[in-house]
Amino acid sequence: MRVRLRLHYHKLTFLTLALLLAFVATGSAQQTPDPKPEQKPGQKTEKKKPGYTLTVKTRPILNLSLKAEKASMAEVAHDLSTRLNVPVFLGPQRQKETISIEFSELTLEPALQLMSPTVYVDYELDTGSQNPPKPLGIFFYDQNQGEPPSSAVVSGANQTLLVEGNTEDGVDTDTEADKKKEDEQPLRVHYENYLLTVKAKKQPLPVVLVKIGEEIGIPVDIQNENLDPIDVDISKLPVEDVVRQLSPHLKYYYRADLTRADKRALRLVLAEPAKTTQGP
């Protein structure tokens, strides 16, 4: 009887000990954290992605896509400047703001209007190219900040020519005789409501351009002094359409105010014709 009790006691002790060891082993396995992957030499830590996605496509036409959620306006503007290779200027308040917006494949101006309540864009129009006007600078300004300086991105020397003629060009006349006399003048330029009228009979192109500059109120840079006379009769067209008809050697600079939906001329340049290289 004693032998049986001892055997039973020893079996119970061994079973208890085995259960205790199994419990300790299980607890240790649960508390041991997974080992961290070793960073290989030269491997860079992944940077935090910005809070926006900007896509710029140039074909078939320039268009922008932007998805942003409380993204820094300064960072988005810097990225946009890099993608377009165009300087982007921010007003003091806009530099501190965040932007939350989403649009897809919009052309430049509608996209910019969604990004800021006040936007200006300065352009260069090359009359010898079939390409659309090229943006030279984008201004995301604060409300009531005012317009950027005319020379913010467009600057250069200008040459002044003496233009002889009636100082009353473009003034309304009363009599039929006055109207007939006005019609007989060799050069008439009139600018009203953003529309330009140019009528010239055998007038040198530089003289016509300087007269246009005087009427609009912009500097004119004459780099090509070709005095071949021209004949034109253009009535009430936007300035960019007029300069396209005058010569393939013009560069017209203007500013688009996207907030007010209007345009303002900045400068007109008569450039030297491109030199062609002759073969051997």
Q: In sequence order, what are the helices and strands, one letter per element?
A: HEEHEEHEEHEEHEEHEE
Instruction: Note the total helix count.
Output: 6
* Average pLDDT, all residues: 80
The parts where pLDDT drops under 50 for at least 5 residues are: 1-29, 42-48, 165-171
Structural class estimated from helices and strands: alpha+beta
CATH architecture title of one domain? 3-Layer(bab) Sandwich
Question: How widely separated are the two ends?
Answer: 126 Å
What spatial form do the alpha-carbon principal axes imply?
elongated
Count of β-strands = 12
Q: What is the percent of helical residues?
A: 25-40%
Radius of gyration: 37 Å
Structural notes for this entry:
The chain is an alpha+beta fold and 280 residues long. Among the domains are: 89 residues, 3-Layer(bab) Sandwich (Phage tail protein beta-alpha-beta fold), CATH 3.55.50; 83 residues, no CATH class. It has 6 helices and 12 strands. The strands form 3 sheets. Strands 3-6-5-11-12-9 form a 6-stranded mixed sheet. The protein has a 3-stranded antiparallel sheet with strand order 1-2-4. It has a 3-stranded antiparallel sheet with strand order 7-8-10, with helices on one face. Strand 1 and strand 2 form a beta hairpin. The radius of gyration is 37 Å and the shape is elongated. The N terminus is likely disordered.
